[in-house]
Amino acid sequence: MLKRVLAPLLTLLLLAGVGYAIYISVTGQANTKAAADKLDAVHEIKGVIGSEKEDFFRDPETVAALAKLNLKVTWDKSGSREIASIPNLASQYAFAFPSGVSAAEKIKRDQNKNPSVKKSAQAFFTPMVIASWKPIADILIANNIVKKKGDAYFILDMVALFDLITAEKRWTDLQDNQQYPTNKSILVVTSDVGKSNSAAMYLALASYILNNNAIVQNEAQIAPLLPKLASLFSRQGFAEGSTEVPFQDYLTMGMGKSPLVMIYESQFLREMNNNAISADMIPLYPEPTLFTKHIFIPFNADAEILADALANNPDLQKIAAKHGFRTTNAALFAKGKNIAGLQDLVNVIDAPSYEMLEAMINQISPAK
Amino acid sequence: MKFLKIIRITLLGILFASLVGFFGFLAYMAMNAENSEETANTSIPNSESVLKVLAGSELKDIEPMLEMIKSKTGVQLQMEYIGTLDGAEKLTSQPGLYDIAWFSHAKYLSLLQADKKLIQAQEKIGISPVIPAVKESLAKQWGWINNPEIAWSQIAEKVKAGQLNYAMTDPTASNSGFSTVMSVQAAFSNKGDAITAQDVDAEKLKIFFSGHSLTAGSSAFLSESYLQDQAKLGGIFNYESELLKLNRNPLLKEKLVLIYPKEGTVTADYPLILLNKEKSADYQKVVDYLKSAEFQTWMMTNTDRRPVNPAVAIGAQFPKGYLMDLPFPNNIATVNEILFAYLNDRRKPSHSFFVLDLSGSMQGDRIAALKEAMTNLTGDDISITGRFAQFRNREKITIITFSHVVMDTREFTIDKDGVVLKEVKNYVTDLSLGGGTAIYTALQTAYLQAEEARKADPNRFYSIVLMTDGENRDGISYEAFNEYYKKDIDYLAGIRTFPILFGDASPDEMQSLAALTGGKTFDSRKSSLSQAFKQIRGYQ
Is residue A68 within 8 Å of A23, Cβ to Cβ? Predict the structure, then answer.
């Protein structure tokens, strides 16, 4: 009796097990199974993102991975600090995905009393690098500002570089500069510090070094640094609103416009995967450097599913690695195709608090 | 036993549900995939997407590709053309009219928009530096062929020595002139980073601009005028793309050698700018196509702009090596200060003749429009482009009014403090009408006076604006004028007439007049008399 009942049951069980196993292996989303169960139809959610993450969201692999979760994501892009100052952010968008802890902190604080704001997730992170060129690196090596690490990596001594910049040295002041004999000042090209996070990261780095290698803690420490900090940006002249534009200039207009450009490592690695990086383009790793964290802030339940997926879904993490982002899964990043990000970054500093960063930006941004 | 059975059934239930769920999911995915394929296939031909584009006038050369863009993206670009600064002002003063802007650069717009955030996104499409070019014989003589060491200061020396005069557009009307002025300013400041208006020795700039012998309000018109006047000119400042085109023109008598000054230049990067957020999906489709290898190759081959897509190998017409870029000011006040300093103090001053019809038919709205157009140039138009168009310090203005005869001739020399501007304004405000229309007698009067004036003071730009609202009824005929002009062409050439199409003036006759003198007609019927006068200022 028991046997007769049990036999077909076991067969069914076996079938089901195989089916389930196939399901798991096909979708690879064991972690978010619970989440997927919540959505029975495709939900479209629209957020506002930092421009450097657009390619990730546009990637057909990302679209497919999100479709498995029944999510369709659309977005507007904006400078990260601009995102933080959009009025009624949570009523316009389902989520915000800026770069940088400070922009995220501000958004969370502004939306503090808004019950729709859900738990945010630190989706990706990436160190700041300075996009440069082989001939430029050679000049900087000859002047003891860059040193090679192994065969492939170039480490930029930020203290030495800031000495040159604040002394208003020009490329013609350097030794062995035949490859770049321009009379232009030595400066790092950034985006607009009033609008964009990557420029704010440069400011954070500069303030640390000019404050004798210590994170600025209060207004009294900031005040004497302001003239030097302001000149890092004002002397550049025209600056673009978001990080992608100076990086596009780097890729398309070359060394004459952009000898040194402050970018995210992820941008560089992404273009490496797109085969847009030529042999003479190289990232310089500043020492010290800092990480930019890309924090995802959901404003509704659908976006919360996305937050969870970005932080935990191995498929999405794999795609993120392809786009050059580092995730919590370091092994994935290391294994990615063509990925040549420097693994053992030493001397990583923290950005100053949101208040300190804002105070500096407000005091050095050119009057509107 | 019973407990076990419950567990077993529950387990079975869960697994069964998963199984159903799994096949359901597969079916759903398959359906979904089909659906999305279907929409992808059908959406393009059926799409009615139209993007309204305000574009720089030099982008007219993209027109042959508009159909292709539409067939590849399903998006139709509805183009309208304008100068860079005019366009930036229009977009900031009247936001919401256009979905897309497409100019040679976005810097002026970025600075002008301030906190308005008009630019939602931008993607660079093509590259063309604005550079000098000199005739091959001069380049040989000076050792400038394949010489990477040429600096802006050496160009200035040749001008100072009287060995180089050149063509350049007006920097407030056209981006190639604008970029040249910004380059010269940056190069002469010798600063190495962002400049201010005061960073440069004004005398140095004055010497540089003293070589400016042919002006125009657009880069394409400058190339055409260069061909006409090439015998008298040594060089030209224009986009690399325009210069490469010019070098292939069969009418060009002597090849131009393109110079890439070692301090650098300002480079046009043609960003496609999204203004209307709602259209971001269509915008992206267009950007993807414009950056595709197919379009980039077409653009490089047909418009001589450098590609931005690294997959497209750069053509042999471009020299090897990188383009050095000069820094650009970081605020609108500095840019405008540089431009006003150029207009009022540094450029070669002009002597502008205005031949104005005061016949009876001008009564009512027409004379009111004429007075407004003229008083706008005395400072009534306070918009930024209105101020650029204003009569400039040191400029000479001759107003010749006519009906059946020449009624009056009055010359003004504009001063720094604007006292004479008020006199011009009063004079224009008090104009009253007569009868009859003697267009060509009045125009001949203008030429006789301009010829005399140029003999006495050759270091000015001479030009004539002709505004009439009807047919010639009195005085000499068009044919007689034609004869006079052709007979005296050696003395008159270079003094261009810019006729305005207005009221019942004969468009054909006005066009032949423009062609005869190397000028250009301006159609006020499509915009307004004020607009036409303002545009002509770019050619004076």
Answer: no
Contact yes or no for A368 and B115 at CB 8 A: yes
The C-alpha of B162 sits at a distance from chain A's nearest C-alpha, in angstroms, of: 28
CA dist., res. B174 & res. B168, Å (int)? 10
pLDDT single digits (tens) B41-96: 334 444 579 999 999 988 999 999 999 999 999 999 999 999 888 899 899 988 99
Q: Would the CB atoms of A237 and B195 count as touching at under 8 Å?
A: yes
Domain A127-291+343-364 in CATH 3.40.190.10? The answer is: yes
pLDDT, tens digit, 9 for 90 and up, residues B21-32: 555 444 444 444
Sort out which chain B residues have CB atoms less than 8 A from A185's CB and list them. 191-193
**CB-based contact, B18 to chain A, within 8 Å:** yes
Is pLDDT at B305 greater than 80 in this prediction? yes
Q: Do domains A29-126+293-335 and A127-291+343-364 have the same CATH topology?
A: yes
- What ipTM goes with this model? 0.77
A285's tokens = 């790793």
Hey, are the CB atoms on B19 and A77 less than 8 Å from each other? no
Distance in angstroms (rounded) separating the CA atoms of residues B348 and B350: 7
Among candidate residues B348, B465, B460, the one with its CA nearest the CA of residue B401 = B465
Whole-structure pTM value? 0.83
Q: Is B455 on the interface with A (CB under 8 A)?
A: no
Which of B398, B445, B393 is closest to B421 using CA atoms? B393
List, in sequence order, every beta strand (DSSP E) within A83-191: 95-97, 121-133, 146-149, 153-157
At B125-181, the pLDDT tens digits run 999 999 999 999 999 999 999 998 999 999 999 999 999 999 999 999 999 999 999
Q: Give the residue extent of every domain in chain A.
A: 29-126+293-335, 127-291+343-364
Rg for chain A, CA atoms, rounded: 23
Which one of 3.20.20.80, 3.40.109.40, 3.60.10.10, 3.40.190.10 gives the CATH number of domain A29-126+293-335? 3.40.190.10
Residue for token digits 């950005």? Answer: A351
